[in-house]
């Protein structure tokens, strides 16, 4: 199959899978889940089949059609998009395994709807990853927002629906009010919205316009959760844990930081943005978000809310690394998307497993839980150490490259931010690990329980293994992203 047809297949497979899941769910739960796993596996195989061509320098592309003169729906696979698509498609398999254990173990309602919209969200993520221009990116960005709303509002009670409306309202308002005007401005100024190595805006805008347009993009892409456009993310924690994993690790937030990185590299151009003083604010906005979100996480007593604010901080690592505008930092930004995905999905899987097995959600309830749930808490420990950046975990690799890029640029704000946030990460994760393993459980507190269902434990074991494995086996990802800065 040609590269262009593989792109189309990557978009169509999860959408057809969604239809199959909806139909299968009318007959048999096992059949529905089998269709989910088959679809996820087929998508991963299809996406990963593009990797050799991209590593060899190929850039398969296809144009689906022109909407109006000069604006078309088009797709092109480049290194950053390849990394995002490979990550999202691969983790969908693991998330599906986990979802089977979680949804059954927690006796969730409307499971067919859950799996159906999950598949549609993955189709949208593939469209974002392979978008060839700003219009296509915006189109699938909106589809991703709309398809995840039923997932966030899954429980259906008043509190959940209210929080889901915050989720939808913030993301739609920012995208329509800021992201879309930025796209229109770009098309008018540059005459095109195509993603082009080196950018398309040099000589087209200058002075304060550069910083203003960058601001429209950064805050218009609300999924990146750069403060103050972050409120939707804690609100979305009302969703079931597999959805939280989708939001934080597989698709949604990764779509946000991916889009910002792609726009900086292929629309503005690294060299052009580095020469524009009005764009310097992005570094400080990202640094502020990292520190502020880490401080808020430090005050949380609910495990999922702590992980939500941790995600806000970790996302801005990617934004800050991109804003450093140095090759090593750009590589670090891309690699941190992978490192954060592996570590954070492990943490959310662990949080969900704890809830299914014990119904515990608060930090004070986790005393001694490592002895009841050793597999789950070992995985949690690995994920937490990766968020801190301790070797041998994936988080150490990405932080190494970001820090190297900061030193390359003599950017002391970034250096201080990385060091300070690492201390804060340790301050809110290490006590959880300590209480889980070294503080005895209070007698008579909580129900007697063991591990979560086997499928959930299997999934979090896989992601914890990936978190360590990426520390040792990251050459392919690094080679892919070196093409981003040295085409």
Structure description:
Helices cover 74% and strands 3% of the residues. Strands 1-2 form a two-stranded antiparallel sheet. The protein has helices at 3-24, 29-48, 51-55, 79-105, 111-129, 134-152, 158-190, 208-220, 232-235, 241-250, 252-268, 270-274, 281-299, 303-324, 327-358, 369-372, 374-388, 394-408, 412-438, 454-472, 475-485; strands spanning 61-68, 71-76. It has a domain at 280-487. It starts with a helix and ends with a helix. The mean pLDDT is 92. With 487 residues, the protein is mostly helical. Helix 4 packs parallel to helix 15 (327-358) and helix 11 runs parallel beside helix 14.
Mean of all residue-level pLDDT scores: 92
Strand order of the largest sheet: 1-2
- The fraction of residues in strands falls at under 5%
The ordered string of helix (H) and strand (E) elements is HHHEEHHHHHHHHHHHHHHHHHH
Give the overall silhouette: globular
Helix content: over 70%
Radius of gyration based on Cα positions: 21 Å
* Extended strand count: 2
Number of helices: 21
Quaternary structure classification: single chain
Please give the largest β-sheet: 2 strands, antiparallel
Rounded to the nearest angstrom, the distance between the terminal CA atoms is: 25 Å
Class from secondary-structure proportions? mainly alpha
List the uncertain runs. Answer: none
């Amino acid at each position: 199959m040609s590269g262009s047809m593989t792109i189309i297949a990557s978009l169509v497979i999860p959408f057809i899978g969604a239809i199959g899941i909806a139909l299968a769910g009318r007959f048999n739960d096992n059949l529905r889940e089998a269709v989910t796993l088959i679809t996820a596996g087929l998508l991963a195989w299809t996406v990963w089949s593009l990797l050799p061509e991209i590593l060899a320098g190929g850039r398969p592309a296809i144009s689906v059609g022109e909407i109006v003169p000069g604006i078309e729906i088009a797709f092109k696979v480049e290194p950053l998009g390849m990394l995002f698509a490979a990550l999202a498609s691969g983790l969908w398999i693991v998330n599906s395994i986990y979802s089977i254990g979680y949804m059954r173990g927690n006796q969730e309602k409307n499971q067919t709807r859950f799996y159906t919209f999950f598949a549609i969200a993955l189709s949208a993520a593939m469209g974002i990853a392979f978008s060839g221009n700003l219009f296509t990116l915006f189109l699938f960005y909106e589809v991703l927002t709309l398809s995840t709303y039923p997932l966030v509002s899954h429980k259906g009670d008043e509190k959940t629906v209210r929080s889901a409306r915050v989720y939808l309202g913030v993301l739609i308002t920012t995208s329509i009010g800021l992201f879309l005007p930025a796209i229109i401005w770009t098309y008018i100024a540059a005459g095109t919205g195509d993603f082009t190595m080196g950018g398309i805006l040099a000589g087209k805008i200058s002075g304060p316009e550069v910083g203003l347009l960058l601001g429209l993009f950064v805050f218009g892409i609300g999924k990146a959760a750069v403060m103050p456009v972050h409120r939707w993310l804690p609100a979305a924690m009302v969703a079931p844990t597999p959805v939280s994993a989708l939001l934080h690790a597989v698709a949604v937030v990764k779509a946000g930081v991916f889009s910002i990185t792609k726009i900086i590299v292929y629309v503005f151009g690294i060299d052009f943005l580095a020469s524009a003083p009005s764009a310097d604010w992005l570094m400080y906005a990202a640094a502020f978000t990292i520190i502020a979100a880490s401080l808020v996480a430090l005050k949380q007593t609910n495990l999922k809310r702590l992980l939500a604010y941790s995600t806000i901080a970790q996302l801005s690592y990617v934004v800050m690394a991109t804003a450093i505008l140095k090759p090593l930092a750009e590589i670090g930004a891309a690699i941190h998307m992978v490192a954060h995905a592996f570590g954070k999905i492990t943490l959310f899987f662990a949080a969900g497993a704890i809830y299914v097995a014990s119904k515990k959600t608060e930090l004070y309830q986790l005393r001694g839980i490592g002895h009841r749930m050793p597999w789950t808490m070992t995985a949690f420990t690995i994920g937490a150490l990766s968020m801190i950046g301790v070797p041998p975990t994936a988080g150490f690799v990405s932080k190494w490259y970001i820090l190297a890029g900061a030193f390359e640029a003599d950017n002391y704000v970034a250096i201080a931010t990385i060091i300070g946030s690492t201390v804060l990460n340790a301050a809110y994760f290490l006590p959880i690990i300590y209480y889980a393993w070294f503080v005895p459980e209070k007698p008579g507190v909580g129900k007697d329980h063991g591990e979560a269902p086997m499928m959930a434990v299997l999934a979090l074991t896989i992601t914890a293994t990936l978190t360590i494995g990426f520390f040792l086996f990251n050459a392919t990802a690094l080679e892919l992203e070196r093409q981003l800065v040295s085409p």
